[in-house]
Design goal:
Distance between the termini: 24 Å
Order of helices and strands: HHEEHEEEE
Largest sheet: 6 strands, antiparallel
Number of strands: 6
Strand content: 35-45%
Family: Belongs to the thioesterase PaaI family.
Protein name: Thioesterase
CATH class: Alpha Beta
GO molecular function: 1,4-dihydroxy-2-naphthoyl-CoA thioesterase activity
GO cellular component, one term: cytosol
Keywords: Hydrolase
Length: about 140
């Protein structure tokens, strides 16, 4: 059964219920053959004590989008995907609005994948540049 765009987005967001993604209000909003796009509101819930977006929340957003992108490539009946390394360079502070994360591939291997995740603000300014390495491991029978 082929799912349409709305069904895929609905399912992607449904699996986030009762997880960190729901806690941070992360939403998957678009995808294509080589990217996944999501957003997260910048509210006091994701602030550092001085009122700016916490880098850990940004990294959680980046890993979420990168992991979804890696899973789009894989046959999830045969493998499961896990993040094995993430790096984040935080370049700009954000106090309000939304941040958007766009994950795209740098390498699409059968076992390992390398993704770049660009996090931007409401004005398309680069907030963080992240890289995520994922691994696809066989499911036990």
């Amino acid at each position: 059964m082929q799912l349409n765009r709305e069904q895929v987005l609905l399912r992607a967001n449904e699996v986030c219920k009762n997880t960190l993604m729901e806690t941070l209000d992360i939403e998957i909003v678009d995808f294509g053959p080589d990217f996944v796009l999501g957003k997260m509101p910048v509210t006091p819930k994701v602030h550092q004590p001085d009122g700016v977006l916490h880098g850990g929340a940004t990294a959680a957003l980046a890993e979420t989008l990168g992991s979804f992108a890696a899973e789009i490539l894989m046959d999830l009946d045969k493998v499961f995907v896990r993040g094995i390394e993430i790096s984040a360079n935080h370049l700009k502070s954000v106090r309000t609005g939304y941040v958007y994360a766009k994950a795209s591939y740098l390498h699409k291997g059968r076992t390992t994948q390398l993704l770049e995740i660009r996090v931007t603000d409401d004005h398309d300014n680069l907030v963080s540049l992240c890289k995520l390495t994922t691994i696809a491991l066989p499911k036990s029978k």
